[in-house]
Amino acid sequence: MTTDQDIHRIYAKGFELFKQFGIKAVTMDQISQACGISKKTLYKYVDNKQDFLMKAFLFIAEVMNMELRAAVSSKKGNAIDELFAIEKFAELRIRGEEDKLIFQLGFYYPEVATILKKKREEIVFSFTRINLNKGIDEGTYRKDLHIEHIAMLYYGHILALHESVISDTTLDLDDLRNTSLKYHIRGIASAKGLDYLNKLIQTEQ
Description:
The chain has about 200 residues and is mainly α. It has helices at about 5-20, 30-35, 40, 50-75, 80-95, 95-110, 110-140, 145-160, 175-190, 190-205.
């Protein structure tokens, strides 16, 4: 009898294969072999490769959602502290290999890519709204913020600066992202929040 845990293991294994070899290269035969099951068994859970991609990526998105929730809840502090925790998580899980896979999906399975981008957007927007409301309530963010506008701008920050940057000089992307985050915080912080941010920056130096 196959459990949800077994199915999730299959999705996770397939996802790792996609990361290693690319969306187009991986076949259903390879996935079934890597999971130690027959292709007939695999097709009990999915209709075809596109269906597998959809279910596997949505599963990974849910895992990412839970991991982000844990990362934020474990970060003791104010809204600015939580924002740095979200940024650290984005660096590890939203930018990089996962984002490159969604880029590949856009070429080969655009319908799947569209749904997954929407799911990612929902996750980031949800956490951003919560963070903004917390910051406003505790006084670290300005009270006149337009929540939806700022959430959209922050989402752009999350996805930006992860592939290439046009510049006459070679830039350290980690430093650039750190600068972008501080720029974002300065735009939404109250006097109290700015004072706290400046203290954080001083501890970095």
